Design the sequence.
């Protein structure tokens, strides 16, 4: 066959492209198919990814069962204790976390946190290189979002199923929340060791600070703990903790969030850690804390689970300064080696707020709260209810007199006899009035009084003032032989301090859930139990207890303000219940097993009351008890009980309910100025009383 030729007769060349096409066409066809399949695969992949993202966006994240620590705060809003079920956890806003904590956490855990969408590819590649070079898993690449997903919804088992779920939840978290929200959730959820979850709980446990108050050094120390809560705990291994702190400070320096000078200063700073102590922490005001739990759960119906895991906040009436003073005086008032017990309860009579509560000397050894013990006899501290009944009856006034001498009383229509005795069998063997009977705590006068006014009436009066314990209408009631709790006594005496208005004691002001919604808010419950004039006359009489001749006179030098009250002593119990215009307090001392008190042991109640009252009110200026309408203050002769004129040898100012003051006169009339009259002849008894009381208080 002849080859093709051109016009010159030369052989014609065969075209190159057809030859190449012929040779490579099969390959090109196959590549075309590959491109088709590749494009289709990419499209399918993108569709699957889009569908997956749409699916994940429509799906709800699992419910994360994260318990939140509930907290109890005082009147100033300070956290004084927490409630939790094993996990101490308290959430706060990201804005309430120190920027040092945020910067330290990002620097050491996920420096590209704000640049990735849940997975840090560069971090993964870097971790792979490090691990390959070291032939070990030295460096992880989990982002903060991945850690959050794992800690919120998954276990820490190493399986492919868990990894797949972690990836899915990571994507969902990034789709649903902003970076700040994710970071806030992480810092509130991560474990910082020793039972503390979240940065707020950790800051309080390690440094007794809020998360917002943490310094650079403290933040770098805490940020290092989650990697190994035991290995990097400053309580367990300070060297490891400091090495980790240095690593974090260097990471922050490399990231540009701090300077070299700041890093050096933070590393050199000596940190002051809270003492973990041994065993369960007692906390501040533990008896009060238990009472709050009782009120919240048993009285207000707050569920135990909500209290322990719901992150609620309970706002209480506790005054931290008063509480600290109460714990101090009880700790110092009884020798450490003694088995004698004590209790103190203080209430603001104006609003019923419980300001301080100590139910015993050592909560760790014995959690029984003696403030509410209805097994202790109040003794003579019960007598003010008796004398109030006498004043209200119209049968007696402050100058009504009985003879202080051994006496046998007959009652129950002559079928029974009752023979009381004065303390130490000491009698004045003369007629005495109500003021002297209260000051010296004369038992004969008290029984004469209850026989005059009737025991049933005394019980009615006591109940109006807040005494709920059972009592029987017998003559011994006058001497406080029926048990009453210190809580009831303080509440009832507060009625005298508050001008006759009894306010029901309050410990919880309100309860809020973790979102700030109010679950409970207290309502003030008050009742006019007696007139303001009756309350003042009783207060005037009880002030004598702290004056010369009174059973609490020896502590009068401690209290530098007007005060009224009553002591009480039985063979097994000793009391001082008293008040100022701002604070009503009951102090009890005794033994849990009814062991008899020595004289020295019985005398410990009064100094505790005095030191507490003065210390708790140290920042409050002394205030006089206001004299209300319906009170008449006149000079009397204490011997005869008559009105004392100028020539009467003895003159003493006494308070009476208007219309019950004496009319008989001792001595000759004095001048208008001596008799306390104004220029127009009007009696200025109220002003006379105020000036006299002020001079007497100032002199004492």
Sequence:
């Amino acid at each position: 066959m002849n080859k093709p030729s051109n016009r010159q007769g030369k052989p014609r060349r065969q075209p190159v492209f057809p030859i190449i096409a012929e040779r490579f066409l099969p390959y090109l066809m196959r590549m075309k198919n590959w491109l088709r399949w590749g494009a289709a695969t990419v499209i399918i992949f993108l569709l699957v990814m889009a569908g997956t993202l749409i699916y994940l966006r429509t799906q709800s994240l699992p419910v994360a069962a994260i318990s939140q620590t509930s907290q109890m705060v005082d009147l100033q809003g300070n956290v004084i204790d927490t409630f939790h079920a094993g996990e101490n956890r308290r959430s706060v806003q990201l804005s309430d976390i120190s920027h040092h904590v945020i910067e330290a956490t990002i620097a050491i855990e996920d420096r590209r946190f704000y640049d990735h969408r849940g997975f840090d590819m560069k971090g993964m590649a870097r971790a792979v290189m490090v691990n390959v070079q070291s032939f070990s898993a030295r460096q992880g690449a989990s982002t903060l979002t991945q850690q959050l997903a794992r800690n919120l919804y998954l276990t820490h088992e190493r399986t492919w199923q868990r990894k797949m779920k972690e990836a899915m939840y990571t994507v969902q978290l990034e789709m649903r929340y902003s970076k700040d929200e994710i970071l806030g959730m992480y810092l509130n959820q991560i474990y910082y060791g020793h039972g503390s979850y979240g940065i707020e709980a950790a800051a309080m446990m390690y440094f007794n600070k809020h998360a917002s108050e943490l310094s650079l050094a403290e933040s770098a120390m805490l940020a290092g703990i989650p990697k190994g809560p035991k290995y990097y705990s400053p309580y367990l291994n300070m060297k490891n903790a400091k090495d980790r702190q240095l690593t974090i400070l260097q990471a922050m320096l490399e990231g540009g969030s701090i300077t070299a000078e700041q890093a050096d200063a933070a590393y050199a700073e000596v940190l002051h850690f809270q003492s973990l102590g041994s065993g369960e922490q007692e906390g501040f005001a533990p008896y009060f804390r238990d009472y709050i739990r009782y009120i919240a759960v048993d009285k207000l119906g707050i569920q135990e689970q909500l209290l322990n895991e719901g992150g609620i906040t309970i706002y209480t009436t506790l005054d931290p300064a008063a509480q600290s003073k109460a714990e101090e005086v009880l700790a110092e008032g009884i020798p450490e080696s003694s088995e004698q017990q004590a209790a103190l309860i203080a209430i603001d009579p104006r609003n019923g707020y419980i300001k301080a509560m100590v139910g015993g000397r050592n909560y760790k050894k014995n959690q029984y709260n003696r403030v509410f013990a209805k097994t202790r006899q109040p003794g003579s501290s019960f007598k003010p209810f008796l004398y109030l009944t006498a004043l209200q009856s119209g049968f007696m006034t402050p100058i009504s007199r009985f003879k202080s001498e051994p006496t046998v009383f007959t009652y129950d229509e002559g079928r029974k006899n009752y023979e009381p005795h004065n303390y130490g069998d000491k009698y004045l063997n003369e007629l005495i009035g109500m003021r002297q009977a209260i000051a010296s705590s004369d038992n004969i006068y008290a029984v004469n009084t209850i026989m005059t006014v009737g025991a049933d009436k005394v019980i009615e009066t006591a109940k109006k003032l807040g005494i709920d314990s059972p009592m029987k209408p017998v003559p011994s009631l006058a001497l406080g032989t029926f048990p009453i709790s210190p809580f009831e006594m303080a509440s009832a005496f507060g009625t005298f301090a508050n001008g006759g208005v009894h306010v029901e004691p309050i410990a919880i002001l309100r309860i809020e859930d973790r979102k700030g919604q109010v679950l409970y808010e207290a309502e003030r419950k008050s009742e006019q139990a007696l007139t303001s004039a009756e309350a003042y006359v009783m207060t005037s009489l009880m002030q004598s207890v702290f004056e010369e001749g009174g059973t609490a006179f020896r502590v009068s030098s401690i209290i530098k303000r007007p005060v009224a009250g009553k002591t009480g002593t039985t063979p097994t119990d000793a009391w001082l219940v008293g008040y100022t215009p701002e604070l009503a307090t009951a102090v009890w001392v005794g033994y849990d097993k009814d062991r008899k008190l020595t004289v020295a042991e019985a005398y410990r109640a009064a100094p505790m009351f005095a030191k507490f009252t003065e210390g708790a009110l140290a920042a409050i200026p002394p205030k006089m008890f206001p004299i209300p309408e319906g009170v008449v203050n006149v000079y009397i002769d204490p011997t005869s009980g008559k009105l004392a004129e100028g020539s009467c040898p003895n003159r003493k100012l006494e308070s009476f309910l208007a219309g019950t003051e004496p009319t008989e006169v001792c001595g000759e009339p004095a001048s208008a100025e001596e008799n306390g009259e104004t220029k127009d002849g009007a009696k200025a008894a109220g002003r006379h009383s105020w000036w006299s009381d002020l001079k007497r208080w100032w002199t004492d």
Observations:
- The first strand starts at residue 70 and ends at 73.
